[in-house]
Specification:
The structure is a homodimer. By secondary structure, chain A is mainly alpha-helical. The first copy, chain A, has one domain: lambda repressor-like DNA-binding domains (434 Repressor (Amino-terminal Domain)), CATH 1.10.260.40. Helices cover about 60% and strands about 0% of the residues of chain A. The first copy, chain A, has five helices and no strands. In chain A, α4 packs antiparallel against α5. The longest helix of chain A has 19 residues. The two termini of chain A are about 25 Å apart. The structure holds a DNA duplex. Chains A, B: It comes from Microbaculum marinum. Chains A, B: Keywords: DNA-binding. Chains A, B: This is HigA family addiction module antitoxin. Chains A, B: Pfam families: HTH_3 (PF01381). Chains A, B: One of its GO terms (molecular function) is DNA binding.
DNA sequence: AGTATGTGTAAAACGATATTTTACACATGA
DNA sequence: TCATGTGTAAAATATCGTTTTACACATACT
C-alpha cells in the first residue's frame, strides 16, 4: 500500500457524514442535528468541512451513525495533523532527534 | 485481547515521555523543552499529565523522540475520548442510532 | 400567490483552551 | 554560597468550539 499523498489534505470526516451517512439514513441536517443534540449550524460547519469533529462530537456522531467514535476521531486527527504540519512548517527540522533511530 | 478497563483513564502520553524517552536520552526537562522549541512550563504540564499533547506538540515530540507523531497523538486521543465520555455522561443514550447496526 | 420548511451563511456572544512570560520557593551539587 | 534545574502559580494573550440570532434563498405544497 502506498502512503498518502502528503500534499493533499486528508478527507474531512464531514465528507463521509455528508456523502454517505445522512443520505443512507434519509435524514435532514436539521433533524440530524436535533437527534445528536447539537445546533444545526454546528453540524453544518462539520458537513461543510469547516469545523472539527471534537472528541465529544465523535461520540455523538458515532452513536448516531452506529459505528463508534473511533473512525470519526481518526479522520479528524489526520486532518489536524496535516494542518499542524503546514502550520509548523520548516521549524520542525530544527528539532533534533535524540533516540536511537 | 481484552478491552481496556473503561473505568480507568488511559495512560497519558506525558507518562511515556517522562518514564522512558527522557531518561533513556539523559536529557533534562529544560534542555528538552528548548530542543523542541516550547516553553519549559508547557513541557512540564505534559510530563505532569496536566496538559494535552496537541497535534503540533505531537509533531515536536515525535521528531524529538525519533518515532513519529502518530503514537503520541493516539495516546492523547484515547485520553480525550475518555474525558469526553465522562463529560457527556448519560446524554449519549438519548441519541438514536440510524444505521443498520 | 402565498405559506411553510429546510438550507447556507454570517455575526455576536460566551466559555473554554493552549501557550508564553514572569515570578518565586525548593533542592542539589559545585 | 552560588549556580542550575525543578515544581508551581498567576497573568496575559490568542485562538477555538459552540449556541443564539438573524437573514436570504430555494423548494414544495395548497
Amino acid at each position: 500500500m502506498v502512503d498518502r499523498d502528503p500534499s493533499r489534505r486528508p478527507t474531512h470526516p464531514g465528507a463521509m457524514l455528508r456523502e454517505f451517512v445522512l443520505p443512507a439514513a434519509g435524514i435532514s441536517v436539521k433533524q440530524a442535528a436535533q437527534m445528536m443534540g447539537v445546533s444545526r449550524q454546528n453540524l453544518h460547519r462539520i458537513l461543510a468541512e469547516k469545523g472539527p469533529v471534537t472528541s465529544e462530537m465523535a461520540l455523538r456522531i458515532g452513536k448516531f451513525a452506529g459505528n463508534g467514535p473511533e473512525l470519526w476521531l481518526a479522520m479528524q486527527q489526520a486532518v489536524d495533523l496535516w494542518d499542524a504540519r503546514q502550520a509548523i512548517g520548516t521549524d520542525i527540522e530544527a528539532i533534533p532527534t535524540v533516540g536511537a533511530a
